[in-house]
Design goal:
Chain lengths: 294, 338
């Protein structure tokens, strides 16, 4: 097997994987803090991509500049979804109900997107989308590198916020134990809403990069959400570092399988890896074994 | 009270049995066939996920394996198209169970929330396998032997076969509910650790329940394949199927007996009807999503439980009113005074 193909698979794994890691971080953060599995994350990524698309087509706004508009917009979308639907869920079946509620939300968004943008595939354009440079015999697409940098910057700011600010401390406290967090005076309700907003806001950036590197329509969300869920389960639900590593690892493994075997099996390899890992570590790579198995 | 309840069941059964005789328009009887297929699936899904609280979102795995069993066997055994194919329906169910047991063994090792995601992952493994393996015909699908029943009566045998599945799934669900095994499933739902502590073999019970629920879903998939005549991986391994039967059950009432039946009846019939009349998939998605949000927010326990609670409250209110009246009348008040 030629080493160039392998190296280039490794490069893709890291560049694309970082973007997946970014989107998965939003998902795992929401789960960790709120016990909510946000099945709408996939369609929200697509919504973010379509927002960039609309800005570009109607006002000619550059994709990266457009993020200054789409990220705050998606933050508001997240807050609205949380306040309108998710915050109302209570009781022991909360997580199961959240799956259904967010799925219903995603159907609503999918139907609306189909009506507004039709079901034809679109792709985002910019002068940098089709260009690439080469180091040795490995080609680096500008957009992939830019997407990686964007993901790295956003992830670092997220980590900075979580580990160096007062709000981050409340988020991590709620992540660890909601009841105790509330007892020491943290407004868990407010933390939850903002966390959900942040988790959704991230999708604007992820969606933009996804839309520039893939052609998409609203139903691409199914493929996306299944990958994102696989990533967060593999990493351990609620674990931020796990999502990061699993995001990169999954894309890497997928590309390797594509190179060594056949691209046909590359997306299947995600799920096979997941099942194998869970056989040995049911809690995922970095998940904590909960005290109570249920 | 009990007799009245039985009367309701009897009336419903009669209505279902008479439906294709009264309604002869093939457009509507087709809706009928899909509705009974989904009623059987939702009931069967509820028998595991509703009772145990382990929400599975990968039942299309069993539906699809049933459908492919029916297709592959009738093609490779060179079966005559027609009623003899019905014998393959239970075979489809058995194949689905054969897949369910190892899947359950892997998927049920994890926590409840992770279980949901693993069932989704397993579902995608099957979908991708069906698309990429050679013997499944890939994306071009498989054509079953062509059944040459008359156009007018074509739907009837399928409708009644589907109805048999509904009755079977319901009886099985009742039997499980009343058995020791069913109690163990409910105990797992309420508190798995305590159930374990009390000596319930939780793993064995969960895997058995999961595998049992695959049987009817596999049979329904086989029946579906025979009914539509050609199958494609994206339609038999359909993520919408997974979520639909879960939603039907939640809509009707998770863990109740009539809930999944009612939920599937309402949702599948209206979905089929809307698709036929509007033929606008996007509008349908919006309506479907909105309906769901309304139900989940306002009747989080499902229609059946919501109605039952309302009726009980009304009865209680009437009783209270009667009691108040009695209290107000002087002789009772006198008797009540000390």
């Amino acid at each position: 097997m030629n080493s160039v193909a392998l190296l280039s698979a490794a490069k893709d794994g890291i560049l694309t994987g970082a973007v997946y890691a970014l989107m998965a971080t939003g998902l795992t953060l929401i789960f960790g803090v709120m016990d909510i599995i946000n099945l709408a994350q996939g369609i929200l990524v697509i919504l973010g991509a379509y927002l960039s698309y609309a800005l570009q087509v109607h006002w000619g706004i550059d994709l990266f500049v457009g993020l200054l508009i789409t990220i705050p917009l998606m933050f508001i979308v997240g807050i609205v979804i949380e306040r309108a639907f998710i915050g109302r869920l209570k009781g022991p079946e909360k997580t199961a109900m959240s799956i259904l509620v967010t799925y219903a939300v995603s159907l609503l968004i999918e139907g609306t997107l189909n009506m507004v943008f039709s079901v034809n595939d679109v792709q985002l354009h910019g002068w940098y989308v089709a260009k690439s440079f080469a180091i040795g015999s490995i080609h680096f697409g500008y957009i992939y590198v830019a997407g990686f940098i964007l993901a790295a910057v956003l992830l670092s700011s997220l980590y900075y916020m979580l580990y160096r600010t007062r709000f981050g401390v409340s988020v991590r406290a709620s992540l660890a134990d909601q009841t105790s967090a509330a007892l020491v005076g943290i407004d868990v309700r407010r933390v939850s809403t903002i966390t959900f907003g942040i988790g959704v806001a991230i999708t604007a950036a992820g969606g933009m990069v996804y839309g520039a590197t893939n052609s998409f329509n609203a139903s691409s969300s199914y493929d996306l959400i299944s990958r994102l869920l696989t990533i967060i389960v593999l990493g351990g639900m609620g674990s931020l570092g796990g999502a990061l590593l699993a995001g990169v690892g999954m894309v890497f493994v997928g590309d390797m399988v594509g190179v060594l075997w056949s691209p046909v099996w590359s997306s299947m390899s995600y799920f096979v890896v997941l099942v194998i890992v869970l056989l040995f570590r049911p809690q995922g790579l970095f998940g904590q074994q909960s005290a109570r198995v249920a | 009270m009990l007799a009245k309840k039985n009367l309701w069941w009897l009336a419903a059964a009669a209505a279902f049995a008479l439906f294709p005789i009264v309604v002869t328009n093939p457009l509507y009887t087709t809706i009928g066939v899909f509705t009974v297929i989904y009623m059987a699936c939702a009931t069967s899904w509820n028998m595991f996920s509703g009772y145990s609280g382990y929400i599975a979102l990968g039942s299309a795995v069993f539906y699809g394996s049933g459908a492919y069993t029916m297709a592959l066997l009738s093609i490779h055994l060179h079966m005559a198209a027609g009623s003899s194919q019905f014998w393959l329906v239970p075979v489809g169910g058995l194949v689905a169970m054969a897949f369910a047991a190892p899947i359950g063994w892997v998927a049920l090792r994890v926590r409840r929330h992770t279980f949901v995601v693993i069932t989704i992952a397993v579902f995608f493994i099957f979908q991708l396998a069906a698309i990429n393996f050679g013997f499944t015909g890939g994306t071009s699908g498989l054509n079953l032997p062509f059944i040459t029943w008359g156009f007018q009566d074509f739907n009837k045998p399928f409708y009644y076969a589907g109805l048999v599945l509904v009755v079977f799934a319901t009886l099985l669900s009742i039997a499980v509910r009343r058995s020791r095994f069913g109690l163990q499933l409910l105990a797992i739902r309420d508190d798995e650790d305590r159930a374990l502590g009390l000596g319930v073999k939780v793993s064995a019970v969960k895997i058995t329940g999961f595998t049992m629920s695959a049987f009817t879903v596999g049979m329904a998939g086989a029946l579906y394949a025979m009914f539509v005549g050609q199958i494609y991986p994206q339609f038999v391994f359909d993520p919408m199927f997974d979520v639909s039967i879960a939603l039907m059950t939640f809509l009707g009432g998770l863990g109740t007996l009539t809930g999944p039946l009612l939920g599937a009846l309402i949702l599948e019939a209206s979905q089929q009807y809307l698709t036929v009349t509007f033929s606008n998939g996007s509008l349908y998605l919006i309506l479907f999503g909105a309906l769901f949000l309304i139900v989940i927010i306002f009747m989080p326990q499902g229609i059946v439980v919501y109605l039952r609670d309302r009726i009980t409250k009304r009865v209680e209110r009437e009783r209270a009113a009667v009691a108040a009246n009695e209290a107000a009348s002087p002789d009772v008040a006198l008797g009540g005074a000390r």
